[in-house]
Structures are given as C-alpha cells and as structure tokens.
Amino acid sequence: MESSAGVVLYRKTGAGNMFLLLHYPSGHWDFVKGHLEPGETEIQAAVRELYEETGIANADFVEGFRRRIRYTYRFGGKNRAKQVVFFLASTDTDRVRLSDEHQDYMWCSYERSLGQVTFRNARRVLDCARRFLDSRKQ
What we know:
By secondary structure, the chain is α+β, with helices and mostly antiparallel strands. The protein has a single domain (about 1-135), classed as Nucleoside Triphosphate Pyrophosphohydrolase. It is about 25% helix and about 45% strand.
C-alpha cells in the first residue's frame, strides 16, 4: 500500500477560516499531499510537501488532528491501494508559489471548499477539520 501525508491548510480572516485547495492536472481539487520518502515520518512528509507544492514554510500544525483516508485508484492498468494521513495547519500568509504539479489554487470558506473539493473522502477530512477547529473555540 502506498503511503502519503497531506495538510489541510487554513488561514484566519475577518470573514472566517479560509482553506487552501489545489487544482491538480487531472482536473480535481484537493489538499496538499504527497508520498513519504524513505526514512521520513508522516509529519516530516507533510511539512516537506507543503513547502514543495506551495512555497509555504510558516505553518503551525494543530496538535491533536490526524485523519487517515484509504482508497484505490487505477494506474498503469492496475488497481493500487493508497492511504493518506492528513494534518491540520494554519498560516498567516495568503501567498502561494505553486509547483509544476498543480494548475491553480484558491483560498475558500469552509462552505465553498466543501463544494469545490472533488472527492468524498476529502470532504470528510475537511468536515473533520472544521469540527475540530470549532471544538477548540469553546
């Protein structure tokens, strides 16, 4: 099974939390994510992928949030199993320097993000992140 790590990145604004979505060349919208390199921990991979894919190095990871999704996809005519562990992080910057792995990006409210992300498992991760953030306000 392939293993990847990703980040649900948000920034606080006067209009509420805005979440970063990336537009992948295959057409879908999703969060930052990528494969673990040999010897790398999940969090190290998430930090590295965040920087490689967005140029953002000043993210504060939210303690206690870790969500894993599993899915299969077709590659080279074969089904492949994959798991991705997502972390939640905040940043003060709205500047994104896209890698060549993506076509575009957007910062969206929770509601818009929920409608923009392509896959159901990404919507579930986003919903978990929102509920986690809401629970910390109390």
